[in-house]
């Protein structure tokens, strides 16, 4: 038993090394960066900070509490969670997060990143060993450089992309088996899983699959016939479509959600433009080149400086198939062109220009580069010293050129990059010479190669990857917010929303702390809602909208019943203290409407916000149209040019400010000349409303900025607000019960009216009046509406993501087809299903002229049998990659008929 285990370990040692090496290296880098538990920092970079950690927390909460995975109220006033899951959370590995405490979500994600990096190293190592039929330990080094490449250094925090990085080598292996061996299921399953886990990166994978399929067909070395090529092409089309069908359950709902987002508003580039030279791109493959995350389109393609030696050697190696060599070089050129030109860049990114994070397909380029480099190493004994020397001089020449063009003045990159890269190139070249000429034992050369590669790879990742932030700061309010929000939930079972007025960390704090909110920042953000927030003076952008700028009016309309704050707020008849814990306080907004209320049909169809208005004026217009009450906000004072002004109100009330000058991004508000002041930032793009709070006529408010603000101060008339509330609440939707996807209640109307719901419009919502489904429509391209006749009616809302059922049907159908193919192949192999001589069967029983002509044209028995066997193989070829099935002996099965066929030919 022990020897058997050792044998298994030895036979898979390459895979063990490929997985363990990146694991140890990344753990060591976590340690040096003082990432928890070795310090107080965490790996929480960019969107991982603002989006992924909160969304993971929301997924944990839903799974642990048995809530619906189709809709969430903790994101942006309500969102299609299926689509958000498809874009951010679809990796099957994410379900394991429920095994750990929610508070350690950051550490769970950090651990998943390390494991997925190790998994990507293992995946390409597996590809190399199967493609080249070797388990040489050197393959693990190429796995390490893939798993810790420049792409990973730049984007490893994009945890939802890493599954596709792992699956890419497996997909390409499956594609090669489809072309070379007619084995298709492995390709279909891996591509389907890739599409399922992240549709966006899968677009790039699918484009590369098409390109590689063409190259494989051109370089195919098997039996050459038109039927063979036709069969492979048909297999490719059918199994690619089935792979898409496997992911349809998420794809179709996601496509609909994106049609509502700002991402759908794109146009094809009018002119072809170049970003930079191909030569400048090649510098991105040097060690310690800073990763690029901005808008300048630079690719992150580092995968070891040995590529400058190995790619020329790959080209010079005569043992490598010439057609394959030319084809793969063309692939690299296609990728470099796509990095460099705007139209290919637009196409590769799903007909959309990426908003920063450029060249997201660069990991595919790295895959092809590394496999070509390994083939050069695999055939290193076939290469002469002269060829190795030529490759070395090419590398040194490029380094000198890079240094002169891009590093001489230090404006682009440091000159040290060229020298450090040169040292490693010389070391690799020396090891090649030693391997081919010296009489040293191979283990010593291998050990030196591993040592140099590990040092290089670790230096690059340490220099360019793993940006950290303070874990202590991120979790500072975690327990306190959880406590106060739980207190509210335990005592209020009505439907309500809450948001953070001060101290919000991200626009997804609702998902992080699991409370219903109006804010969101995600790629699935509803564009209509963002535009509505802009009209109303609230914080908004292309893919986000938030609570900054909320007023008592918008709190009332959007059912924001509670406000979370990390500072004490003045109380009034509109807002009162509710609870607090450890510096986090909750205030109750006393006048908030239910999730639905009636408005006049004229308000629904004819009211138009004015683009020239600021948010306060548009809120006045909205309330006037809905209730007939005008001037809920009144002007207190105006300061057109001042950068420092003092406001002295004439009465008590809630004060709001508008800084109309779009160049002003930051202002400071000080009350009563005290040392305590409040700063408001990010005003430039949002024209955001500034909530000063409740003040009295004895207070003074000083406002300062760097330049003239064109400031207007408004006071909320609380009496008018209460009147407006009473009018709208009198004919509001009384909710009896609700879940994430279902509301039941009633409404009483004095006349035919439109019921407006504070729910972002989504075709997945169905509304039933007295049990009968009625048509829904959208208000201001943002909120859900329905027309309801006069009288008292039961009102029910149900949610099923648009296209989810159709997508699930397509996925189930695809699974059934794949299972059917697999089972049929097994039954045929075992002789349980009789196989027909299909060409003759069709000719004899269907009597098709086309088949007759084919049969006659193959009057020679041997050729005819070849055609017969070829078509049968189309049906019976190996479909399961996990079993090494043999095709049945068709010649024996059809011997009786072949005899008849011969006799017929003799008669003719």
TrEMBL record:
The question of whether Membrane is a record keyword is answered with yes
Is the keyword Transmembrane helix in the record? yes
Q: Where is the composition biased (Acidic residues)?
A: 886-895
Keywords on this record?
A: Membrane, Transmembrane, Transmembrane helix
- Membrane-spanning residues where? 12-31, 84-101, 108-128, 148-173, 185-218, 233-253, 299-317, 329-348, 360-378, 390-407, 413-435, 442-461, 804-825
Basic and acidic residues composition bias: residue spans: 898-908
Region annotated Disordered sits at: 886-908
Q: Which InterPro entries does the UniProt entry name for this protein?
A: Uncharacterised_YfhO
| Protein name from the UniProt record | YfhO family protein
């Amino acid at each position: 038993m022990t020897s058997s285990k050792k044998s298994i370990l030895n036979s898979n040692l390459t895979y063990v090394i490929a997985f363990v090496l990146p694991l140890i290296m990344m753990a060591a880098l976590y340690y040096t960066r003082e990432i928890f538990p070795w310090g107080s920092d965490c790996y929480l970079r960019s969107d991982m900070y603002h989006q992924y950690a909160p969304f993971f927390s929301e997924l944990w909460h839903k799974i642990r509490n048995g809530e619906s995975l189709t809709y969430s109220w903790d994101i942006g006033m309500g969102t299609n969670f299926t689509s958000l899951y498809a874009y951010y959370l679809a990796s099957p590995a994410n379900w394991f997060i429920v095994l750990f405490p929610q508070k350690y979500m950051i550490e769970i994600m950090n651990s998943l990143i390390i494991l997925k990096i190790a998994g990507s190293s293992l995946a390409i190592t597996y590809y190399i060993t199967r493609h080249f039929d070797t388990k040489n330990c050197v393959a693990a080094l190429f796995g390490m450089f893939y798993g810790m490449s420049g792409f990973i250094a730049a984007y490893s925090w994009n945890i939802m992309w890493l599954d596709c990085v792992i699956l890419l080598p497996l997909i390409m292996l499956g594609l090669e088996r489809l072309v070379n061996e007619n084995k298709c299921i492995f390709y279909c399953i891996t591509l389907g899983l890739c599409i399922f886990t992240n549709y966006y990166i899968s677009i790039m994978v699918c484009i590369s699959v098409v390109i590689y399929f063409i190259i494989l067909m051109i370089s195919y070395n098997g039996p050459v016939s038109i039927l063979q090529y036709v069969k492979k092409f048909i297999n490719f089309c059918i199994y690619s479509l089935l792979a898409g069908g496997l992911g349809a359950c998420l794809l179709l709902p996601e496509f609909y959600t994106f049609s509502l987002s700002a991402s759908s508003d794109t146009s094809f580039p009018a002119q072809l433009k170049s970003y930079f030279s191909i030569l400048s791109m090649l510098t991105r493959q040097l060690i310690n080149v800073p990763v690029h995350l901005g808008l300048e389109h630079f690719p992150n393609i580092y995968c070891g400086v040995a590529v400058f030696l190995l790619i020329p050697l790959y080209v010079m190696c005569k043992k490598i198939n010439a057609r394959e060599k030319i084809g793969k070089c063309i692939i690299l050129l296609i990728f470099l062109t796509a990095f460099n030109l705007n139209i290919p860049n637009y196409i590769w990114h799903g007909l959309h220009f990426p908003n920063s994070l450029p060249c997201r397909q660069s990991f595919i380029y790295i895959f092809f580069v590394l496999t070509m480099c390994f083939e050069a190493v695999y055939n290193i004994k076939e290469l002469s010293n002269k060829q190795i020397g030529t490759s070395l001089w090419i590398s040194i020449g490029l380094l000198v050129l890079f240094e002169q063009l891009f590093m001489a003045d230090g404006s682009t990159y440091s000159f040290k990059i060229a020298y450090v890269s040169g040292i490693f190139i010389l070391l690799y070249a020396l090891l090649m010479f030693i391997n081919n000429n010296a009489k040293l034992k191979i283990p010593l050369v291998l050990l030196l190669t591993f040592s140099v590669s590990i040092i290089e790879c670790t230096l690059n990742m340490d220099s360019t990857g793993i940006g950290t932030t303070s874990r202590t700061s991120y979790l500072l309010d975690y327990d306190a917010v959880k406590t106060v929000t739980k207190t509210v939930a335990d005592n209020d079972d009505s439907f309500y929303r809450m948001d953070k007025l001060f101290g919000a960390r991200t626009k997804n704090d609702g998902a992080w702390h699991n409370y219903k909110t109006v804010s969101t920042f995600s790629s699935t953000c509803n564009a209509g809602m963002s535009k509505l927030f802009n009209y109303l003076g609230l914080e908004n952008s292309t893919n986000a909208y938030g609570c900054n700028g909320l007023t008592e009016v918008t709190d009332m309309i959007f059912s924001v019943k509670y406000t979370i704050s990390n500072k004490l707020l003045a109380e009034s008849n509109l807002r009162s203290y509710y609870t607090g814990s450890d510096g986090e306080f909750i205030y109750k907004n006393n006048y908030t409407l239910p999730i639905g209320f009636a408005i006049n049909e004229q308000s629904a169809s004819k009211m138009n916000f004015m683009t020239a208005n600021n948010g306060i004026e548009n809120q006045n217009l909205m309330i006037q149209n809905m209730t007939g009450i005008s001037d809920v906000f009144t002007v207190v004072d105006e300061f057109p040019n001042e950068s420092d002004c003092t406001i002295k109100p004439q009465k008590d009330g809630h004060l709001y400010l508008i800084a109309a000058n779009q160049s002003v991004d930051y202002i400071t508000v000080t009350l009563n000349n005290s040392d305590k002041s409040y700063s408001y930032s990010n005003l430039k793009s949002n024209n955001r409303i500034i909530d000063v709070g409740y003040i009295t006529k004895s207070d003074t408010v000083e406002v300062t900025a760097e330049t003239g603000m064109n400031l207007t101060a408004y006071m909320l008339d609380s009496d008018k607000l209460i009147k407006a509330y009473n009018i709208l609440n009198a004919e509001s939707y009384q909710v009896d019960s609700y879940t994430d996807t279902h509301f039941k209640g009633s409404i009483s109307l004095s006349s035919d009216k439109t019921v407006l719901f504070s729910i972002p419009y989504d075709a997945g919502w169905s509304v039933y009046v007295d049990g009968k489904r009625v048509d829904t429509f959208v208000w201001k391209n943002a909120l859900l509406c329905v027309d309801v006749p006069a009288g008292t009616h039961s009102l029910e809302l149900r949610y099923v993501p648009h296209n989810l059922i159709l997508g699930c049907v397509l996925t189930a159908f695809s699974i059934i087809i794949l299972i059917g193919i697999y089972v049929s192949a097994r039954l045929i192999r075992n002789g349980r299903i009789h196989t027909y001589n299909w060409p003759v069967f069709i000719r004899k029983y269907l009597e098709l002229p086309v088949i007759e002509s084919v049969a006659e044209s193959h009057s020679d028995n041997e050729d005819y049998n070849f055609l017969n066997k070829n078509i049968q193989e189309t049906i019976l070829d190996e479909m399961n990659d996990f079993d090494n099935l043999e095709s049945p002996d068709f010649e024996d099965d059809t011997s009786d008929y072949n005899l008849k066929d011969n006799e017929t030919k003799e008669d003719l």
